């Protein structure tokens, strides 16, 4: 076994036991990157000095393990571009709180990973630096926008990784690449130093080989930040403590599998099978019927969330990208690629006088309907089961020409993301012909990361889908 | 010839003198600093930077609202106001749209009440500087001012004359300084005035169908002059049957005239939406009450109080109200035990500060008290001693006495000086002069 194939947990344990040195670990890693990065186009930049920083970190919690960082996290060691030529070569004067915390806990940023430019998309095809390929099958998309980080994990080109999600950007690529991705509660992990996409939903989070790896990374990323007024001063637990608690007695509800686009597909089969696994472990699982009004005991259809999410997100995007006005950063507005221009125009329109009430305000009203619906459901259920995506990874090129590609791919996570809830995607199916994966999305109310980690870890241990967890 | 009635409203921007910025830790005091030396990722609007509101600035805005008699919103929020300008690094200004911190309120003037429409909090922008660098005319941006807390006070269109506008502005200036929330120094740009003016036919009700705004005026006098100028200009246009163009104008000090800056075909579209980076603010009754309780008495009350307790006239009281630093030093001085023991009056202390203390902000009350007491001790010489000294000098200098009596005014000064010399600096000089004049 090559050392780059290790999980975060094993790499830390073995480094501490001195089974191998940092030099050996980083050598295997750099060899693998040299061999495969050009095939998949995962890293935009790499820190060749990473290993020299790792040596001194053996006694820290993360013991000097490398992490791959999505290119919208500001890092002083490497350029930060959000995969857009507008910020080509931009060297930030400060570090994001999330990467700073992870570094303080003893990890080393090994490189910056490709993404949809400005995180606009679910394919990593809209990157100005070229698309990333799915390491499970390079003819297919890795998903996005954190496609580079998910692919880095899938290809064993890192030990741990982080990404960010507004609606699906961690869980959808995790699902398509057959890895684990956790979207924390909005405000659990600081957004300070993460290039803003949709400020009211952006949530940085871990992408890893196992549930436990995600728990370890989350423990060192989360927490109140005085530089981000939307984080809360709630204590951060050691998220690894709950992983062996099991699901006995948990109440679970299955969502969206009666949606006409999903019913009868492999996904439907996979999620129902996953539910069986939980039942065998002592959980109580219900099928929650989908409804058009969200009345008690039903789940409000996700289709409306597409409109809500599109309006809210485009509005915030048009505002957040206003600062790249050509006065600073050395690139004028014409450097924005097609997708960003589309979103800026749509968002500018939805915020305009006479239209804001019709679109933005209305979208916020529907958003509160979803909030109420989830509050109702979580008064009955511990967790909800679904998938981050309506199906398998799509073939390369599938995203072009469809302005709502991402929104359709992320439909199933948009309702819960809009209300700031947490969720985790774990592999739950593999198509033996294409080698493509499906993900099980376990969702919970805000601040309940422990509950989803507990359920996801139990599922991972009870099944064989995750090769690293064996 | 028609007669018209001016309809005037005011927008006033006041920079708060908090320690740090509106949303970051940079110093709020930006005056005369080297360009771009007081900036950080937040006030430069760098990618990934996030605003965190300054509690003190929020508290002070509420304080101002309470002093103006505004209703304080229990729920308030910040919004993004979008427009492009090179001094606005994020492409939007964080301001308040439909839920300002304070609504309503009033300032009484001798011409009638002027109602306050709203008071809200926002961030200041950077500053453009036009310069010539290596022979090229360029525009440079200084971001030191970017992100300084800025309060905007908007009145109803209740003002009817330039005199009333001036009186309102002076009162507002007094309140802001008296609360200690801003220096409101016009020369430094920490108080900026924007009158909006239109005319309607005398006797008509309702707002005219146009409005002219004059931006960024930095003195009460110029504000009054701009209003006067606009009224005359509008009268001429209206008498000609033309409605003045709805526009923004600026005050040209050199020409003593307003000049057109931009015409607004319709209201600018700022695409306001709630600032997602800052959660909405909720204020409890207790919080607002605690600010209310910390409020100093009103300017009028305070003025009456100091006139009474220091036995000074209104003019002097006015000076002190406008100079809160000096007032607080005086308050600190009069209550000192040595001052009380020496029977030194409040008026004496006030006069001392006004005439002898050059920089009140640097004055130490104990030291000033000491100076006053010493000067009084020097003068404490018995009248009989003074008179004896004067008699001696007069008898020793009969020529000077004769000269004076012959009309030589200077001789009196010679005698006066000789008496002072004989007293070796002791004694009240005014008394010496009085007695001397009497004897002569």
Layout of helices and strands:
The complex is a heterodimer of chains A (470) and B (440).
Chain A: H1 8-16, H2 22-40, E1 43-46, H3 50-54, E2 66-70, H4 97-104, E3 108-113, H5 147-154, E4 160-165, H6 171-177, E5 180-183, E6 203-208, H7 211-221, E7 251-254, H8 266-280, E8 284-287, E9 290-291, E10 299-300, H9 303-320, H10 338-350, H11 357-378, E11 383-386, H12 405-409, H13 414-418, E12 422-431, E13 436-444, H14 449-462
Parallel strand pairs in A: 2-3, 2-4, 7-8, 7-11, 9-10
Antiparallel strand pairs in A: 1-3, 4-6, 5-6, 5-12, 11-13, 12-13
Chain B: E1 4-15, H1 55-67, E2 71-72, E3 75-76, E4 79-82, E5 92-95, E6 102-103, E7 106-109, E8 112-123, E9 127-133, E10 136-142, E11 149-155, H2 162-179, E12 191-201, E13 212-215, H3 220-239, E14 247-252, E15 257-263, E16 273-274, E17 281-282, H4 285-294, H5 299-310, H6 314-321, H7 324-334, H8 337-341, H9 346-356, H10 365-379, H11 383-396, H12 398-405, H13 409-423, H14 429-439
Parallel strand pairs in B: 13-14
Antiparallel strand pairs in B: 1-11, 1-12, 2-6, 3-17, 4-5, 4-16, 6-8, 7-8, 8-11, 9-10, 12-13, 14-15
Keywords:
heterodimer, A: 470 residues, alpha/beta, Amidase signature (AS) enzymes, two-stranded parallel ribbon, 13 strands, 34% helix, globular, B: 440 residues, alpha+beta, Arc Repressor Mutant, subunit A, 3 domains, 10-stranded mixed beta sheet, 3-stranded antiparallel beta sheet, 17 strands, elongated
Describe this structure in words.
The complex is a heterodimer of chains A (470) and B (440). In chain A, 34% of the residues lie in helices and 14% in strands. Chain A contains 14 helices and 13 strands. Chain A is globular, with a radius of gyration of 21 Å. The two termini of chain A are 14 Å apart. In chain B, the strands form four sheets. In chain B, strands 1, 2, 6, 7, 8, 11, 12, 13, 14 and 15 form a ten-stranded mixed sheet that branches. In chain B, strands 5-4-16 form a three-stranded antiparallel sheet, with no helix packed on it. The longest helix of chain B is centred in the middle third of the chain and has 20 residues. Classes of the chains: A alpha/beta (470), B alpha+beta (440).
